[in-house]
């Protein structure tokens, strides 16, 4: 990283959206972590017991107006201070992020281009973990047991992911494969039908991106009909964010389950378990999901950030 030998042609990269993004390399140009001699608090990246991590998060959209960029980290400041502003919030999210990054001896910065989007970058300094620590063994064993439990339920099953965007499809495949499921990627619903029609292949579940499903309702309806005709046991799932999932076509929603992204192996496991009937001898899927979540969170430390004291009390009780 000292030589900045990284890919910086953001406008031509194969991003999740396929749209150009703000030049991410400019979001860390002034970072002292790349120039340890000029920093009074950032440790040298050459220290064998330290790890310097840099993370960039980029989006596409309206971007941040140039005149508002100098104050984005100021507490309770909004780009649009009017009561009729498009987006809500109190204006403390980025201020809190800056404080947390400072506590981790890191830096944070951004670059934003109006009508293109923004790229935020932060660094953090970590100590190398000790693999032989006896204190970490119980937690590692617990996490390993949880992972094995999740994967054993679906071990040997086959899934089909319908998504024309290769980067996003690979992300979905990775999370599904963590459950022990074999995954095949196809670009559209027609290819999906061809794959399911193969008599030498058993497909247990099909995951379709919501935008693909909404593109042509007639093809989607035909897909459901053909899917039931070929194999009525195959389960159909739509992958969508919280906004798109609310626009689901209610006329056919009884034939599929909507899974909200971002995908996480634990939540994906719970969704599949409910849709596929739960454990044998346990008809109460809601109870099973609650127990799975409780086991997943047992012993974890959770940080809750909220400016409303009542919300903090409620969250602590839950």
Provide a short characterization of the protein structure.
The protein has 318 residues and is of the alpha/beta class. It has helices at residues 93-103, 137-154, 166-177, 189-197, 210-215, 217-230, 265-275, 285-297, 309-317; strands spanning 50-60, 108-113, 117-127, 158-162, 182-186, 205-209, 235-240, 257-260. The chain is 32% helix and 17% strand.
What do you see in this structure?
With 318 residues, the protein is α/β, with parallel strands linked by helices. The chain has 2 domains: 10-127, Heat Shock Protein 90 (2-Layer Sandwich), CATH 3.30.565; 136-289, 3-Layer(aba) Sandwich (Rossmann fold), CATH 3.40.50.2300. The chain has 9 helices and 8 strands. Strands 5-4-6-7-8 form a 5-stranded parallel beta sheet. Helix 4 runs parallel beside helix 6 and helix 7 (265-275) runs antiparallel to helix 8 (285-297). The chain is globular and about 60 Å long. Mean pLDDT is 75; it is low at 1-12, 38-43, 248-252 and 279-289. Residues 53-128 form the Histidine kinase domain.
Order of helices and strands: EHEEHEHEHEHHEEHHH
User: How many structural domains in the coordinates?
Assistant: 2
Helix residue percentage: 25-40%
CATH class of the largest domain reads Alpha Beta
- Structural category is alpha/beta
Q: Any idea of the CATH topology of the largest domain?
A: Rossmann fold
> How large a portion of the residues is in β-strands, by DSSP E?
15-25%
Radius of gyration: 23 Å
- CATH homologous superfamily caption of the largest domain: Response regulator
Mean pLDDT: 75
* Most strands sheet: 5 strands, parallel
Query: How many strands appear in the DSSP assignment?
Result: 8
CATH architecture identity of the largest domain: 3-Layer(aba) Sandwich
Count the DSSP helices.
Answer: 9
Which descriptor suits the 3D outline?
globular
Q: Low-confidence parts, pLDDT < 50 over ≥5 residues?
A: 1-12, 38-43, 248-252, 279-289
Strand arrangement across the biggest beta sheet: 5-4-6-7-8
- Rounded to the nearest angstrom, the distance between the terminal CA atoms is 43 Å
Catalytic activity: ATP + protein L-histidine = ADP + protein N-phospho-L-histidine
Membrane topology: Multi-pass membrane protein
InterPro entries: 2C_system_His_kinase, CheY-like_superfamily, HATPase_C_sf, HATPase_dom, His_kinase_dom, Receiver_AHK4/CRE1_1st, Sig_transdc_His_kin-like_C, Sig_transdc_resp-reg_receiver
Main location: endoplasmic reticulum
């Amino acid at each position: 990283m000292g030589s900045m030998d990284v890919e910086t042609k953001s406008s031509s990269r194969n991003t999740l959206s396929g749209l150009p993004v703000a030049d991410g390399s400019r979001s860390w140009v002034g970072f002292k972590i790349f120039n340890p001699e000029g920093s009074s608090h950032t440790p040298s990246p050459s220290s064998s017991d330290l790890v310097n991590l840099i993370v960039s998060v980029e989006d596409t959209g309206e971007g941040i107006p140039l005149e508002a960029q100098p104050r984005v980290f100021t507490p309770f400041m909004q780009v649009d201070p009017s009561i009729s502003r498009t987006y809500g919030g109190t204006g403390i999210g980025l201020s809190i992020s800056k404080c947390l990054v400072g506590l981790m001896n890191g830096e944070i910065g951004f670059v934003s281009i109006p009508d293109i989007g923004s790229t935020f970058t932060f660094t953090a300094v970590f100590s190398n973990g000790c693999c032989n620590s006896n204190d970490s063994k119980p937690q590692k064993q617990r996490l390993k047991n949880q992972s094995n439990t999740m994967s054993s339920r679906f071990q040997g099953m086959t899934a089909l992911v319908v998504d024309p965007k290769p980067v996003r499809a690979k992300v979905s495949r990775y999370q599904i494969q963590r459950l022990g499921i074999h995954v095949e990627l196809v670009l559209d619903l027609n290819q999906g039908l061809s794959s399911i029609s193969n008599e030498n292949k058993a497909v247990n579940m099909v995951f379709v991106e919501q935008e693909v499903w909404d593109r042509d309702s007639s093809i989607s309806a035909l897909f459901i009909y053909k899917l039931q005709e070929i194999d009525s046991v195959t389960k159909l799932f739509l992958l969508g964010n919280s906004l798109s999932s609310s626009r689901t076509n209610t006329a056919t929603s009884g034939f599929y389950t909507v899974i909200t992204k971002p995908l996480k192996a634990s939540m994906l496991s719970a969704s599949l378990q409910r849709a596929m009937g739960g454990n044998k001898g346990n008809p109460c899927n809601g109870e099973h999901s609650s127990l799975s979540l409780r086991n997943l969170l047992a012993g974890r430390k959770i940080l809750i950030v909220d400016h409303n004291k009542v919300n903090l009390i409620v969250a602590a009780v839950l």
